[in-house]
Specification:
Shape: elongated
Order of helices and strands: EHEEEHEEEHEE
Strand content: 35-45%
CATH superfamily: Molybdopterin biosynthesis MoaE subunit
Number of strands: 9
Low-confidence stretches: none
Structural class: alpha+beta
Largest sheet: 5 strands, antiparallel
CATH architecture: Alpha-Beta Complex
Radius of gyration: 15 Å
Oligomer: single chain
Mean pLDDT: 95
CATH topology: Aldehyde Oxidoreductase, domain 3
Number of helices: 3
Helix content: 25-40%
Length: 138
C-alpha cells in the first residue's frame, strides 16, 4: 500500500504513521524534515516550496514502488508540502511499515535520499539580506 501526497497545508506526521500501521507491521520508521533557522552559516527567515505536481507525484510513486520491491516493506507514506513554510514547520514526512525494523529503516532512508535526488521540488530560501532558489534537497 502506498500513500503519496503534496499539500499546501501543514503536514500531519501521525496521519502517515497511521497509514503504515497494521497487525502485520513489526516496525515503523519515520523521517520528518523540518525547516531550520540557518543554512551555510546564514540565518534563514522562511522557505517557499514549489513543485511540478504531476511529475513530483509520479516520481514519488516510483520511489515508493521501488522501496516496496527492494526492501520487503508492506506500506509507505510520503507527503511533501508546497508553499510558504516558517522555521520549525514540516516540509516532508516519510513513514514506512514493514514486518521487520531493518527493512523499515533501509526503505525510509532510501525514500528520502531518492526524493532529494529525483523529485522536481524547489525551494526559495529567504535570508535577512536576500533570497535564492535552490533544489529543495541539494
Amino acid at each position: 500500500m502506498t500513500d503519496i501526497q503534496l499539500h499546501s497545508i501543514p503536514l500531519n506526521a501521525q496521519a502517515c504513521i497511521d497509514f503504515v500501521s497494521g497487525p502485520e507491521i513489526g516496525g515503523i520508521a519515520v523521517f520528518v524534515g523540518t525547516v531550520r533557522n540557518q543554512t551555510r552559516g546564514k540565518r534563514v527567515l522562511r522557505l517557499d516550496f514549489e513543485a511540478y505536481e504531476p511529475m513530483a507525484i509520479s516520481e514519488m510513486r516510483k520511489i515508493a514502488e521501488n522501496a516496496r520491491s527492494r526492501f520487503s516493506i508492506d506500506r509507505i507514506s510520503m507527503h511533501h508540502r508546497v508553499g510558504r513554510l516558517e522555521i520549525g514547520e514540516i516540509p516532508v514526512v516519510i513513514a514506512v511499515g514493514a514486518p521487520h525494523r531493518g527493512a523499515a529503516f533501509e526503505a525510509c532512508q532510501y525514500a528520502i535520499d531518492t526524493l532529494k535526488e529525483t523529485v522536481p521540488i524547489w525551494k526559495k530560501e529567504h535570508f535577512e539580506d536576500g533570497e535564492v532558489w535552490v533544489a529543495a534537497h541539494p
